[in-house]
Amino acid sequence: TVFIQSAAGYVYIYAGNETVSVKVGDEIQLGGEVGTLGVSPGSAEPILHFFVYKDGKPVHPDQAPRG
Fold first, then answer.
1. How would DSSP label each residue in the chain?
2. Which residues pair with 31 in a beta bridge?
């Protein structure tokens, strides 16, 4: 699971990764790779779990800023 915090205070969570390409403290550019998607246990297909939070409250991903 990768947590990315934006300068505006949004936290983006990417879960379901097989590998992680970033480490704590890395600055991520828009469109940058954070990992590779893995196959979820009990499923034959890869599944990305994506969540966004602001001030500890969930934000619908469609309403979260990109960049």
1. -EEEE-TTSEEEEEE-EEEE---TTPPPPTT---EEE-BPTT-SSB--EEEEEETTEEE-GGGS---
2. none
Contact between 16 and 41 under an 8 Å Cβ cutoff? The reply is no
pTM: 0.86
1-17 pLDDT, tens per residue? Answer: 999 999 999 999 999 99
Q: How distant, in Å, are the alpha carbons of 10, 31, 37, 61, 66 from that of 49?
A: 16, 17, 10, 11, 17
Which tokens hold the place of 29?
């550019």
What tokens appear for 31 in the block? 């469109």
